[in-house]
Specification:
The protein has 19 helices and 14 strands. It is an alpha/beta fold. It folds into 2 domains: 132 residues, NAD(P)-binding Rossmann-like Domain (Rossmann fold, 3-Layer(aba) Sandwich); 271 residues, Dihydrodipicolinate Reductase, domain 2, CATH 3.30.360.10. Helix 9 packs antiparallel against helix 18. Bound molecules: nicotinamide-adenine-dinucleotide (NAD).
């Protein structure tokens, strides 16, 4: 018990209450010792000259991801062989869009809730891209790997600890890539900061902050935006940080998580819920009560003593932010808007000002990430998605498969960033008790290794 709850705590309820399954706490701890081996670190598959893709889910996100493939298809790096959703209209619309980029006909799967499985079983597909509601991600990723497919899955890749373990076990056994497509790791600002950290500009990092603060009330309550309002349903019974990865993905790269450091334990607290229910009442929405607090704060401590504050609020009317704060011994960055402070060493009184625009721009130019520099030229004229990061992410995933090199985000990263959601729910439900974060890497996090995104400039 000690190891997941921390020395003083026993929650007094089975983890299954929140994890929605029957694992006891002890079972989850034992899994860490027994069922995985860390063998997917540095994993490379054989080169795939042209990656043959099947996409499940052609809603908002599936269509954006599709557009990111135009360049790769036109340059013979990829082709789309299958599309699956629940209606002919959705798959056909997507198929028509693709027909101007590739001649090859696409097989469509839309007959039932399980038709996607037929697509995953085909032998003319190498990679399944998943852009469906959260509760389908783990089972679709696992089924795809079991059927010999690599996986690129939207965020988060899993919603329960049990599924986190299953994903790792499956990837290790089937030897398939399983990359959670966390696009924020590929944003120009985040890559710039990562590059500065790697170049020593920040010195040693002590603290970071990230967030998903995005007023989604209108979209959550809309009848049509999310299929069957799946995203609103997540807020009815769950309470914690339900969307960790946009903030935590980049921070994990900043802190070398799984490559020399790892998450140790967390504590999580949610505020009361007011704003979503108020909006629901105004809209006369049939559901007007939600468990998920408006604002969740989760604090994570790493094994090497760094702290991470992760915030989540999609209920409150306020400007978007992922915060993107990094505090080091030599520099500090704060996002939204991006500001940089450089500590002037050896001066007794250091001042309190952010760099001025000219000084800031010098750093911006000097430390621009090499991937951004190299892709700026080729991506011209193609759709970019979220200011460019979606294109960079899809390009890196497909070119990585073409070249048979390790992908930037491996199965351990994918699971570790996602597992913070169910762990935050456990903490929130137990008066913010400290919860030990299981080691999903089988101890491999101790091996310092450099980030693929810094090494393989393609
Ligand atoms: N990374 C990002 O910036 C970003 C942005 C938006 C959404 N997302 C993620 O993308 C995912 C999808 O979100 P969305 O906004 O596109 O939602 P959406 O509701 O618009 O799309 C989901 C699609 O999945 C389809 N679907 C559901 N069940 C299916 C099944 N059994 N077989 C085949 N298709 C099925 C739906 O019909 C729908 O078209 C979510 O995980 C979300 O978190 C990520």
């Amino acid at each position: 018990m000690k190891s997941i709850l921390g020395a003083s705590a026993f929650l007094g309820f089975p983890i299954s209450k929140i994890d929605a399954e029957n694992n006891s706490i002890q079972e989850l701890i034992d899994k860490a010792k027994r069922d995985n081996n860390g063998s997917m670190f540095g994993f490379k598959c054989s080169k795939i000259e042209k990656v043959r893709i099947g996409i499940i889910g052609l809603g908002n996100r599936g269509n954006t991801l599709l557009e990111m493939l135009e360049y790769l298809i036109k340059n013979n790096h990829a082709e789309i062989n299958g599309l699956s959703d629940l209606t002919y209209k959705k798959v056909n619309l997507a198929s028509e869009k693709i027909s101007s980029w590739q001649r090859k006909k696409i097989k469509l799967f839309y007959d039932s809730n399980d038709d996607w499985k037929k697509m995953c079983k085909r032998d003319d597909i190498d990679l399944i891209i998943i852009a469906t509601p959260w509760n389908l991600h783990a089972k679709m990723a696992i089924f795809s790997m079991e059927n010999n497919k690599h996986v690129g899955c939207e965020v988060p890749i899993a919603s329960t600890l049990k599924d986190c373990w299953k994903i790792i076990e499956t990837a290790e056994r089937t030897k398939k890539h399983c990359m959670m497509m966390e696009n924020c790791n590929y944003n120009e600002e985040e890559l710039w900061i990562l590059n500065m950290i790697q170049e020593g500009v920040f010195g040693d990092i002590t603290h970071t902050e990230g967030a998903y603060i995005h007023d989604l009330r209108g979209l959550l309550l809309s009848d049509t935006y999310y299929q069957d309002q799946w995203r609103l349903n997540e807020h009815i019974n769950r309470n914690g940080n339900l969307y960790t990865t946009h903030g935590l993905g980049p921070i994990s790269f900043y802190l070398n998580i799984a490559r020399g450091d790892t998450f140790s334990y967390l504590t999580s607290m949610s505020s009361r819920e007011l704003n979503l229910s108020k909006a629901a009442k105004n809209e006369n929405h049939p559901i007007q009560s939600y468990s998920c607090g408006d604002m969740n704060n989760t604090l994570i401590k790493t094994k090497k003593g760094k702290t991470i504050l992760l915030q989540f609020d999609v209920h409150t009317g306020r400007p978007y932010t992922r915060i993107n704060k990094v505090v080091g011994t030599k520099a500090v960055h704060d996002g939204y808007p991006s500001r940089l402070y450089i500590d002037k060493e050896n001066i007794p009184s250091w001042g309190h000002n952010w760099l001025n625009k000219d000084e800031y721009n010098l750093f911006k130019t000097k430390y621009k990430h090499p991937i951004i520099k190299s892709l700026e030229k080729i991506s011209e004229g193609f759709k970019q998605g979220h200011g460019g990061m979606d294109f960079v992410m899809i390009y890196r995933m497909i070119r990585g498969l073409n070249l048979g090199i390790p992908l930037d985000i491996n199965v351990y990263d994918s699971v570790m960033w996602s597992a913070i959601t169910p762990l935050s729910e456990i903490s929130v439900a137990s008066k913010s008790q400290s919860i030990i974060i299981p080691d999903f890497t089988a101890g491999k996090w101790r091996d310092y290794s450099s980030l693929e995104i810094m090494n393989n400039i393609i």
